[in-house]
Amino acid sequence: MASSSSSSSSSSSPPPPPRRSVFDAAYIRAEFAAAGISPHFIPLIWKYVLQNPRCGDLDAVPSLPAAAYALLRQKFQPTTSTLTTAAESKDRTTTKLLIRLKNGESVEAVIMRYDTRLGKYDGKPRPGGVRSTLCVSSQVGCKMGCRFCATGTMGFKSNLSSGEIVEQLVHASRYSQIRNVVFMGMGEPLNNYTALVEAIQVLIGSPFQLSPKRITVSTVGIIHSINKFNNDLPNINLAVSLHAPDQDIRCHIMPAARAFPLVKLMNALQSYQNESKQTIFIEYIMLDGVNDQEQHAHQLGKLLETFKAVVNLIPFNPIGSSNNFKTSSEHNVKKFQKILRGIYNIRTTIRQQMGQDIAGACGQLVVSLPDERSAGGATLLSDIEDIRI
Hints:
- By secondary structure, this protein is α/β, with parallel strands linked by helices.
- The protein folds into two domains: 20-77, no CATH class; 82-358, TIM Barrel, CATH 3.20.20.
- It is built from eleven helices and 16 strands.
- It has helices at residues 2-11, 25-34, 42-51, 66-75, 162-172, 193-203, 223-232, 247-253, 262-276, 294-304, 330-342; strands at 20-21, 76-77, 82-88, 94-100, 106-115, 120-121, 124-125, 130-135, 139-141, 156-159, 180-183, 215-219, 237-241, 280-286, 309-315, 347-350.
- The strands form four sheets. Strands 3-4-5-8-11-12-13-14-15-16 form a ten-stranded mixed β-sheet, with helices on one face. Strands 1-2 form a two-stranded parallel sheet.
- The longest helix has 15 residues, at 262-276.
- The radius of gyration is 22 Å and the shape is elongated.
- The termini are far apart.
């Protein structure tokens, strides 16, 4: 009986591998090439799925060769992630999307609608109108462990594939026409570098056609990836989560900073800027009594005086009863801004917060903590591309 059972189990064929997302660009290109199918058909498939986000199969994609339909049926599906819920803020400026991945984990993406006419530049109303920015996640959880960020409490769970990154835009397109994309959701984008590069290359090509100038990648400062960023992603905006003007404070609030000494980070950023000629966006979360004093503003000003940079001061959002930080006073934030602007001539903005009533504000993103419903959110930014120098 034992040998019969063993023979039976060994003769059964293994299950077919799971079908991949059509937006996993490297994989679908390789499969098309192996089958002798022109890669020019791939953007047509992406366009169909983008325009029909609820499509169940790919047989309805028009004008493909027969071999392509057979390959798509066997190895691909329109999307591998599913949109679970969409929560709308009371003022309808923010929509938070909870997206379930094929591995059972979830991430969140946040749509922010921002009317540029409500802001002022040089004392005058700014031109434009309503624009939508999508904040996307690059990982489930995060290894960086920043003490002021809810995502850090999750630890790291998994990287997203390039297709899962792109699919966040596909899901969001059901709710708004997305103009800008910021990689400021869950995870450290430069720790998922290959998928990040591949996803962005899809976003700036057909059919998405996003301008590179309207895509921003935020990092805590992964030096070896910054060193190759401009070569792999020219004209993409780089934002650095600096959050402190010296190494000791950075290490206190951002444990991962120990691996990326501030002097080496600033040297890497200087080399990047010399090569790319790009403005660097500096993100700086304002923590009461920790990094928001006048001496910190002067330290930051001196640190950045050789850079073409925009500093974005971010009001801190409490992330639960266990948090040890407090929000800086409005007085301290404005005084900090005044020093950077007035003494060091550094363009400095104060981030407008959006979506706080749906836990969609800066640093609040966390999924599946014990004993909590998905409390979600994402690191938000009011159209960072609209504050380019």
